[in-house]
Amino acid sequence: MTPRFAPGVRLHQDKARERWVVMAPERMFVPDETALEVLHLVDGARDLDGIIDALAEKFAAPRHVIDTDVRTMIDDLVARGALQA
Amino acid sequence: MSAPLGLLAELTHRCPLRCPYCSNPVELTRSSAELTTAEWARVFEEAAALGCLQVHLSGGEPTARRDIVEITAAAHGAGLYTNLITAGVLLDAGLMERLKVAGLDHVQLSVQDAQAEGAERIGGMKGAHGRKEVAARITREAGLPLTLNAVVHRQNLHNLPLLVELALEWDAARLEVAHVQYYGWALANRDALLPTRDQLDEATRVVDAARAAHRGRLVIDYVVPDYHAARPKACMGGWGARFLAVSPAGRILPCHAAESIAGMTFPNVRETSLGDAWDNSKAFNRFRGTAWMPAPCRGCEHAERDWGGCRCQAFALTGDAAATDPACSLSPHHGLLAAAISQAGGLPFRYREFG
User: Fold this and answer.
1) Cross-chain residue pair A26–B83, CB shorter than 8 Å
2) ipTM surpassing 0.90, yes or no?
């Protein structure tokens, strides 16, 4: 499964407030730190396993520890219309 | 105070449709008074500098402006996420392609009902529904995301399941089920449009079921009518808190209906900057925060949750824009809403028109 941003959805640097936001059709939301790490890795090419690998490496965390969290998060972002699986 | 997140750019009041619940003011602005392309470009630059992230290009019908492509390009160039709020009847594939190249991010297309006959009676324009179907198709063919906006009321709520089907059929990723809010034209047509409690409950049930059935495929936003509520809506997230609008003639407003409040004057982009209007104008500071609130809002535990409800509705129903919104059960005028509900019936409505 290779997640990508849904049409019209993108990460945007909100310079006035010094944060990243997810801009989407008529809505925006502020991802928490973990979601932001995941979203920065969503490029339409990297598959779910690749995202988990990259996070495991970056945070020197055991893969099985973050696996469920990342899958749940991606599932939630798909349900909210931000990502497509 | 915090910076605004969104700008509603009401580019024109001109529109081929005549919906009886139009959110434009009853006193419509003529095209000769509209802001120019360059003036809108400056507004977008100022909005982005102020902290706005998203602009809603609206009207009237925004594509009635011949410079809609230039306007879209200017909004995109300013760094804003651009959303076109359209009736769709003036769009063709060529224009859609030019809008996309100009940087358009998203299209919100209105429908007046699920089927042509009812939709065209409510919208007051023959042939509109078929043109909307074309607009949906060319939006998706251009690769742009589509939201269907269904304004619902007493005369079309029975078709809500069909409106959900329509959103799926036209390949929308979002459906906005927006109950009419009663200001301006809609207030004048309230008897014909206000739903019954049973209709509202059924609509809520349909929305809940559709959300579950189409999870991951269709996001449904649901705006409820406050006439059946006990708590008022947190209108605009608070006056001058998160949002501003600019009217076709350049007036800078805390909400698109604010001009309906008699006795208030609003700054104009031809005379001042958005930032100055947001920070310093009397109009934006008049109902900001909680210090302006009289009883029963003052000191109420809900004051910072609903901000006293809607100022325009308070003015429209009580004559006092500082009064607690009658949608609140603590308002001494709350009975007005029950009276309106019991008075409502399927009367013919008055179409929107230039006076």
Assistant:
1) yes
2) no
